[in-house]
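Q&A log
Question type: sequence-to-structure
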Amino acid sequence: MSCEVITKERVGVINPIFTCQPAGAQYVSIGVKDCIGLVHGGQGCVMFVRLIFSQHFKESFEIASSSLHEDGAVFGALNRVEEGVDVLLMRYPDVKVIPIISTCSTEVIGDDIDGVIRKLNNGLLKEKYAGREVHLIPVHTPSFKGSQVSGYDVAVEAFVKHFAKKGEKSEKINLITGWVNPGDVKTLKHLLSEMNIDANVLFEIESFDSPLIPEENTVSHGETTIEDLQDTANAIGTIALNRYEGGKAAEYLENEFEIPAIIGPSPIGIRNTDIFLKNLSKMTGKPIPKSLAHERGIALDTITDLTHMFFAGKKVAIYGHPDLVIGLAEFCLDLEMKPVLLLLGDDNTTYVKDPRIKSLQENVNFDMEIVLNADLWELEDRIKNKGLEVDLIMGHSKGRFVSIDNNIPMLRVGFPVFDRAGYFRHPVMGYEGAMWLAEEMANIIFNDMEVKKNKEWILAMW
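Response status: OK
Response body:
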């Protein structure tokens, strides 16, 4: 019985788990108020990312492109950045923040986005937009390395580096959520509110779930302000919930401004939510109220109703963002399930040093594989050709055909989810998230029992 960490042996990728770094940077940009990202690359670098955002949230988001063409790839295309910034500022009078997000093509040809930002700050912004607050932020996200996960991490750090400004000490904390859903942010803010804790939340994305109101043009956009970002340098501490999605920014604030940082674990499941609340209490000196103990008790009761009868011994395969996958695996272990296969889909070589992965290696009492730089063929091949038996798959919608073709039930979780309605409204974090995950897993297993006539009589007795 062992937990083995291996790296995909194939050079090529078949059905990738993640997309590229610029997608992560664009996700950060839509979380900031009065911000429109300008992606310096081909039109598709924005079009397909906006499409996947729209598939997941069923909303439209404003992201711009420098629309690089063949001539720019040969002769350079910084003029497209200059034109793009000018057009954005003319067309959107409220825009104050424009991150310039690089892509593989513009990094390869060597376009100097830092240099063009200096040129624009000393030229266009002074001459044509004098007196207007405009922030141009270079975000380097070449898509020939890393993934949407590392792109998110790089972009959060770039925003914090640009804006963090030492001033009066505040009583706020910084909460860096990572790549989560609006439902998670709502739940996290509820936990903060119950503990009477004020926070700079990076990022306020509850408004991604936009209303449809007659005679109003409602655009989905985040609500984290410039003032929130500036105030990160004055907080009493930073909690980054995801090590690989905001950890760099937390470390920067600690090193540059001596803001104490706690990085992880992601508050997925009872155990990790308990740790999160204890970290909040330790950082702020505020007690955990009885109201949250009550919520914890309800979540425990919900899970107890399901665990031994339906979850115990069930084998699970999980893929997606690393912090999410590890958090879900830890939760499954607490539910007496066996996460036998974890797939992490990019070239980050530091995963093997993650203390959570080391803990899995030291403590699991069944055979588990953790595959680095994985793709979804690693999942399909093991099930179809190598005899891996799993009772449940957990991951985003890109792996749906592995589930369908092999007749294995699947819980959609992570990003993107486009073949189920409203999943972005449901949290996976906090006690509420633990209940939703447990009940959703159970309902999917119940449906599978009924379809396959596998002890479905138990449901009539339960």
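Response note: Residues 3-14+291-458 form a domain with the Rossmann fold fold (CATH 3.40.50.1980).
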